[in-house]
Design a protein that fits this description.
Length: 65
């Protein structure tokens, strides 16, 4: 993944975290840091951004496969 795409994902996630927290003033660095940590965890898990492979795996488990 390109750095620009990664930063765009982090920016969108940080914004979503900020909105979910009630749009507090002065917390942008905290939300950015949390988004970076979440992105790092996704990259370490090798999960896709939408989690399609995890959903597929869960579907197979539910159907007994």
């Amino acid at each position: 993944m390109h750095l620009a795409e990664r930063n765009q994902w982090i920016g969108k996630r940080a914004y979503a975290l900020w909105e979910a927290a009630g749009r507090p003033d002065g917390k942008s660095a905290e939300h950015w840091h949390q988004a970076v940590e979440e992105r790092n965890a996704l990259e370490r898990s090798r999960a896709s951004i939408d989690g399609a492979e995890i959903l597929a795996r869960l579907g197979r488990q539910a159907s007994g496969g």
